[in-house]
Amino acid sequence: MTEKKRTRQPNGASTIYLGKDGKWHGRVTVGVRDDGKPDRRHIERRTKPEVTKAVREMERARDAKKLKKAGQSWTLRAWLEHWVENIAKPYVSENTYDGYEVDVRVHLVPGLGAHKLDRLEPEHLESFYRKMQAAGSSAGTAHHVHRTVRVALGEAVRRGHTAANAAEIAKAPRLEEEDIEPYTIEEVRSLLVEAAKLRNSARWVVALALGLRQGEALGLHWEDVDLDAGYARIRKNRLRPRYAHGCGGDPCGRKAGYCPARQQTRREHKSTKSRAGRRTIGLPDPLIKLLRQHREAQERERAVAGADWEGKGYVFASPTGGPLSPNTDYHVWKRLLRDAGVRDGRLHDARHTAATVLLILGVPDVVVDAIMGWEPGGAARMRARYMHVTGAVLRKVAGQVGGALWGPAEGD
Fold it and tell me: Does the reported pTM lie above 0.85?
């Protein structure tokens, strides 16, 4: 039977026809090209049933928005570098961008960058994570890389550059939470005794007593502290500084951070990101007294600095009133641990310690959540993560159980 002559279809409708070359052809409208013209995809098969099936599959993919966009054929490297600089950077925080940029530059581009974006498979990612860990990267690092590539590929899917997000299917490296032991009351006392010898000694009392994050403590301004009323408002977060060379046409040969004419390229602080993080904390009387002494010491430094005083209002500042570097702050903490004869630990472990002290004191959960700045939805999980069941708590519970079952112990 002779096929009917090809007739014109309505605008946007798919067409199937027998070509002069003896093969069957299909044309499917899937969208609009960058130049505004219809994006018509061509399909070629040997038989009419074959081309009909292929046309219907393309129509279903188009309707489900799983069809790759026409135009540039991205490599993973090209897409990741474009995404991190032009899509992510303008819309995420500085710290989030830093994490993305390191993952892309140090790990993903060298390890996977040659892959075609639309041909990346979950197995490619899983194999890459194993190689990362075999080369010495921690499971936490590999997991962070996985989260970054998942976000980047998700954006590529939304923009039609690839049909599927391989990172949504790939298995992320397994993370096992470390069992972190908070500092004991005796260790805290040793730290406070040694901290009293340091400049900005109140900085470490705030860390151990209030559980402020590093950025929160270094971003604290006097305008947010009311010593008469006895509270502090947590509203700002200190950012890690970034520098550019300022030496112009005569390069100094050093890294940008050590350039004599270096220029700050990042703001000093930002607003605390979450509503729970923006909180008001009551100050214990001993800490109020210590902060008064700290403010008096800072006023004496202001007098010594004279015209060099920066006057930016930081509670914990440099000798000329400028912001403290988070990196320097970290190294002071490490030195404090050594000088106090206390076991080594992260600066964030001071926050664990503060949360555990609140548990020991029996502070109500809702108050703990407000002090620590935990979001309501994840507060229970965070309490479980931070409030370690210490020996003192275990002994107290054991005594209560024993009293209920066998009566009070002799001598009680």
Answer: no
